[in-house]
Each structure stands twice: as C-alpha cells, then as structure tokens.
TrEMBL record:
This is UPF0237 protein AAAU72_10140. Residues 4-82 form the ACT domain. It comes from the Bacteria. InterPro entries: ACT-like_dom_sf, ACT_dom, UPF0237/GcvR_regulator, UPF0237_ACT. PROSITE patterns: ACT. Belongs to the UPF0237 family. It comes from Faecalibacterium longum. The lineage of its organism: Bacteria, Bacillati, Bacillota, Clostridia, Eubacteriales.
Amino acid sequence: MKAFITVIGHDTVGVVARVSGLCCELNINIEDVTQSILQGMFAMIMLVDISKCSVSHEELHQKMDALAAEMGMQINLTRQEVFDAMHTI
C-alpha cells in the first residue's frame, strides 16, 4: 500500500533524518522523495510503501503526530487510494 508523507515547517537541521529514521524504525520503505526550501520554509513529499509497516494505521498516525510536535512542523500521512478517490472526476 502506497502513501504520501508531507512535511512542512521552518527549515532546521535533521528534518529528513528524523522522518526517514521513523520510517526505518517502522519498516516503511521510502520510494521517492522531493524537498525544497521556500523562503526559509522546508517542504518535503515522500512516496512510501506502508504495506510492511510494523504498527497499525492508528499508531502510525500517532507516531507521525508526535514527531511533528517534537519538531514543531506539520506532518501528514495520506494513503494513495484516499488521494486518488479525492481526485476522481
């Protein structure tokens, strides 16, 4: 199952390392990533495979929310089929 992880907030050292570290810890494979710094704001989108994630979807969201709070950033996880359903004409 594919998902998108989006990260937005003030640019700081270690953002990619912390998010990718959590993915590694939870057995989430990062398949693609793009990132930019826009006027001092960090923006990243990761395409990940969560099919072998070691925790439930609820716990995954809780862990992402906790990391976001620690870093003072916004982190969202959206399953690809949810995204596809929202954009079906």
